Amino acid sequence: MIAGWDKTGPQLFYVDSDGTRLHHNIFSVGSGSTYAYGILDSEMRHDMTVDEALELGRCAIYHATHRDAYSGGTINVYCVKQEGWEKLWDG
């Protein structure tokens, strides 16, 4: 995934190994992604605080790794803002 900020606001892209580029506001990829999407689709709001979004991300990844034997279980969380990015959680 590629995340950044431009004149129009925050941007998120998914780039696969074939070079396909998709633009959207939310992505979940990998073998456990359907489990993560279940959480994200039901809980995501566009007015979330950074702390709420962080907790939602953790919850979605937890459910993906808990339900999917092939998920790695490593979670790295970054917050991308207009001023730059910050690593919020490593684990």
Describe this entry's structure for a reader.
The protein has helices at about 35-45, 50-65, and strands spanning about 1-5, 10-15, 20-25, 75-80, 85-90. By secondary structure, it is an alpha+beta fold. The longest helix is centred in the middle third of the chain and has 18 residues, at about 50-65. The radius of gyration is 13 Å and the shape is globular.
Major β-sheet strand ordering: 1-2-3
The separation of the N and C termini measures 18 Å
Radius of gyration: 13 Å
Structural shape:
globular
User: How much helical structure, as a percent, in the residues?
Assistant: 25-40%
Biggest sheet features? 3 strands, antiparallel
Residue-averaged pLDDT: 89
What's the count of strands?
5
- The SS-based structural class is alpha+beta
Figure out the total of helices: 2
Q: H/E series, N to C?
A: EEEHHEE
Q: Beta fraction of the residues?
A: 25-35%
Q: Low-confidence runs (pLDDT<50, min 5 residues)?
A: none
Task: Please provide a brief summary of the model.
The chain is α+β, with helices and mostly antiparallel strands and 91 residues long. The protein has two helices and five strands; from the N terminus they run βββααββ.
What's the helix and strand layout?
Elements: E1 2-6, E2 9-15, E3 21-23, H1 33-43, H2 50-67, E4 76-81, E5 84-90
Antiparallel strand pairs: 1-2, 2-3, 4-5
Helix pairs in contact: 1-2
